[in-house]
Amino acid sequence: MNRYLILCLLILSPFPAVAQESQVLDSLYQVLDKELADYRKYMDVREERIQNLKARKPVSTEELYLLNKELFNEYKAYICDSAIHYMNQNLALAKESGDTEKLKESVFLQSYLLSSSALYKEADDVLKLLNRSELTGKEDLAAYYNSYDHLYGELAYYTNDKESSVAYYRISNMYKDSLLMVLDEGSEEYLRLKETIYRDRGDMERTMEINNLRLSRVQPGTRAYAAITFYRSLSYNKLGDQTNRKIYLALSAITDIRLAIKDNASLGLLADILYSEGDIDRAYRYIRFSFDDANFFNARLRGVQISAIQSIINKTYQLKLNQQNDKLRMLLSIISFLLLLLVAAMFYIYRQMQKLAIARNSLQNANDLLNDLNSELSGMNEKLMSINVELSEANHVKEEYIGHFLTLCSTYIEKLENYRKVVYKRIKTGKIEEVLKMTGSSDSMEDELKEFYANFDTTFLHLYPGFVRKFNELLAPEARIVLKKGELLNTELRIYALIRLGISDSARIAEFLRYSVNTIYNYRAKVKNKAIVPRDDFDMYVMKIGSKV
To answer: Any residues with CB less than 8 A from the CB of 155 and at least 6 apart, and which?
Structure first.
């Protein structure tokens, strides 16, 4: 539900609080101001409908009559002259065809519009095309009485002659009485008429009851809604409730704008109220828009009605502008004087700032020198910390390997002693063949190498538990090393484990792993070719692998 409908529901709730009414009115002003700014898009919608109608090509008199009637309905609240033009065509078609029903319909529609446009003589002339005695149906009589009631009601309201006004009101009331006798009770026209009668009599309780009923029967955003809310504002004026009067005038005006209705009175009356309350700016905007609407609609009466209000508001608005201009000139004089003082103060400050700038430059130079020294010292501290970390890690590695080496040496000494005892015992007992067999086989050497490498792998991974994962991160995904079941390191990993320990010479690595130098070189080249880091810097990246997981 949009904001406009929510506002309508708030307004229709019984006995709203004063604070709520004020809040609703402020919100309605915001909506109204927005719709005034966007009015052109609503006119475009109506213009498009009109152009679509004009594009139709009627092929018969009946179709032409219906098309003229549709164009009349589009124009009657939009451009008065055009609406009169199309209904005149229908009057001519009805006369030419001798169609009584079409003639009656055209007469009633045209006379009502002419009366609303202050063309009273013309409205009366059109009504005289019909013979009262030939009107026997309730609908025809209702339309006939309504047309004359409207004609004399408009004459009574807008004439400047009081005696004539009284006479016209008397005639209008006679037609009202006749109209009430032929209208169906409960019809919209009957309720509208009764509401007017009760309001004129000052019976506001019945007036509001009928208006509530009428309002409950229409949807917001329709022309009927705009008319009924306008009537409600008249009732609130009688009750002296200006806040609710403004609320319903605003609702009516918003609906008029959204429907591109140029024959309206709500916005002009709202502007008049706002002017009397001192809201000159908003009153000026509203009356200007209302005056433009009246000119666009091109009905003499609307322009005259708006002009009287506009003239007063324009004068007041101009007076307010002049007062504001006087204040502005006075403020401009004060500002000019203050500006001169400011220039003098700025000149004095500028001279002081020059002196301060010299002192600041000297201080800045000293600060720059101090910052440079601090930067150098910070850099040296960082390098020292890095070296300390590397030394600490190297000492840890060294301690681990020395301990492991001593343990390994002790183990091998014990193994050699046991081996010597076995050889000595067998030589002593004359088992030379077994001694030759033992010393001639390389199986024991292979076992010892496997055990040696296993010890190396275990010790290295104890020091660098994340080595395999971090080493693989230096390789392309498809080239990463996957160890076999039971393996801790393979040949490639042992080569780079030795490099991480600081043994980068291929000859020393070959001696340690019992391979040829060329084989070690090929292993290293093969791994570097699969690296995702620069090939020449690969060993440096390996050296940066830390001892943390």
So the answer is: 120, 164, 165, 168
pLDDT tens by residue, 155-166: 998 888 899 999
Report which secondary-structure segment, H or E, holds 467: helix 467-472
Which of helix, strand or coil describes residue 531? strand
Task: Determine whether 372 is exposed, middle or buried from the number of CB atoms within 10 Å of its CB (0-12, 13-18, 19+).
Answer: exposed
* Alpha-carbon gap, residue 389 to 120, rounded angstroms: 107
Report pLDDT for 332.
83
Distance CA 519, CA 508 (A): 13
Task: Give DSSP secondary structure letters for 416-444.
Answer: HHHHHHHHHHHHHTT-HHHHHHHHH-SHH
- The tally of CA atoms less than 13 A away on the side-chain side of residue 205 is 0
Residues 451, 455, 461, CA angle at the centre, nearest 5°?
145
Answer yes or no: are the C-beta atoms of 285 and 248 closer than 8 Å: no
If 0-12 CB within 10 Å is exposed, 13-18 middle and 19+ buried, where does residue 312 land?
A: middle
Look at residue 475 and give its three-state secondary structure.
strand
Cα separations (Å) of 119 from 81, 244, 290? 12, 33, 21
Which amino acid does the sequence have at 221?
Answer: G
Distance CA 73, CA 214 (A): 22
Tell me what the pLDDT averaged over the chain comes to.
84
Q: Is it the case that residue 280 has pLDDT exceeding 70?
A: yes
Cα gap 517→27, rounded to integer Å: 91
Across the range 228-236, mean pLDDT stands at: 96
Mean pLDDT along residues 307-331: 63
Cα–Cα distance between 109 and 107 in angstroms, integer? 6
Beta bridge partners of 360: none
Structure tokens that stand for 485 in this block: 């079941």
Q: How confident is the model at residue 512 (pLDDT cuts 50, 70, 90)?
A: confident
Q: Which residues of 59-72 are buried (b: 16+ CB within 10 A; e: fewer)?
A: eeeeebbebbbebb
pTM for this model (two decimals): 0.57
**Which pair of tokens denotes residue 228?**
């009924």
Amino acid at 38: D
Q: Token pair of 467, please?
A: 């080595």
Q: What is the largest CA-CA distance in the chain?
A: 165
The DSSP code sequence of 323-373 is HHHHHHHHHHHHHHHHHHHHHHHHHHHHHHHHHHHHHHHHHHHHHHHHHHH
Q: How far apart are CA 487 and CA 467, in angstroms?
A: 14
